[in-house]
Amino acid sequence: MKRPYIILVAFAFILIQSCSKEDAILVIQVNEPKLPSTVYNYYSGENTKNHIATLGRVLFYDRLLSKNNSVSCGSCHKQSFAFSDNVQFSVGLNNMKTERNSMAIQNLPSGTFFAGGIGNGTGDGFGLNPVDLIANQGGGFFWDGRESNLRSLFTRPITNHIEMGITDMNEVVEKISRQPHYATLFQNAFETPEINVTRMAEAVATFMESIQSNNSTFDRFMMNSFNPMSPEEQDGYNLFFSTYNCGSCHNPSPGPYFTDFPKDIGLDNNPVDLGFGGITGKADLMGKFKTPNLRNVALTAPYMHDGRFKSLDEVLEHYSTGIQSSANLDPTLKDQYGNPRKMNITEKDKKSLKAFLNALTDYSIVTDVKFSDPFKK
Question: Is the bond into 302 cis (omega within 30 degrees of 0)?
Answer without folding.
Answer: yes
